[in-house]
Write a structure and sequence with these properties.
alpha+beta, four-stranded antiparallel beta sheet, 2 helices
Amino acid sequence: MIVLPKSVTNTKFYPNFLAVALGMSIKDASHTAGSQRAKVEWILSLDWDVNQLPGNSDFMKKLKKILNFYHFPAPAVKISPEGVWYGLYF
C-alpha cells in the first residue's frame, strides 16, 4: 500500500514497485525498575512492492504474495535521534 498523494504517485519519477517506508525501531526496552528509557529510532527507507512486478500466472501471484511479506535490503536514512545514511538497511 502506498500512502502518497495521487499527484506524486501518478508521475513517472520512479517505478510502480518502489515505495517509501517510514519505520520505527525500539532498542534497549526493559521493564525492570531503574532501567534507562528505551531508545527510539525513526528510519526512512525505500520499500519494494513485489505485487507490482510483472507476471500474472498463478505461480507468480503466489510467489509475489509470499515475497511481499519480507523486507528486502534498501537504502535508508535514520532520521532520529541523529541522521545516519545506510547504503543498504536490513
